[in-house]
Structures are given as structure tokens and as C-alpha cells.
Amino acid sequence: MSSTNLQDKIIEAYGGLNDGVSVQFKVNDTDFVFTGGVIYQSIDGCFSGGHKKVKTLKSVIKFVEARI
Predict the structure, then answer these.
(1) Which of 15, 41, 62, 67 is the residue whose CA sits 20 to 30 A from 50?
(2) What is the pLDDT of residue 46?
């Protein structure tokens, strides 16, 4: 699955904002960014230590659920 296709699926699932390079979305009060095939937790606009290379929406969901 291409990153662009996964970006679209993330937007459908979480209602994120696509800036053409990344998708930013919020679940509860936790911010996440998906870019370059990697999902990051974001704190105050900066990537935190938590990140993972993902290829499927299921992997994104598992990453998010572990952090909310």
C-alpha cells in the first residue's frame, strides 16, 4: 500500500489534516503525525520518542490505541 493511500485511510478513520506531505490527526487529546510511512506521537508540535513504521491502517490503529 502506498503512503498516499494509507494517508487517505487515516483521514477517513480519524478525520486528519493532509498537508500534502503528512497527515496530522488527534485522538482524544493526543496528537499524531503520519509522514514517510512512519507514524509519530506529537507533543507541542514536536515528534516524541514514540514512532513506528507502518504499512496498514490496522498497524496505525494499534499504535494509536496503545497511546491513548
Answers:
(1) 15
(2) 82
User: Domain locations in the chain?
Assistant: 3-65
Q: Are 55 and 22 in contact (CB under 8 A)?
A: no
Residue for grid cell 491502517: 57
Check residues 63 and 46 and name the one with the higher pLDDT: 63
Total Cβ atoms within 10 A of residue 32: 25
Rounded (5°) CA angle 39-43-45: 85
pTM, two decimal places = 0.86
Phi, psi of 25 (to 5 degrees): -150, 160
**Which whole number is the average pLDDT over 44-56?**
87
Burial annotation 8-29 (CB, 10 A radius, 16+ → b, else e): eebeeebebeeeeebbbbebee
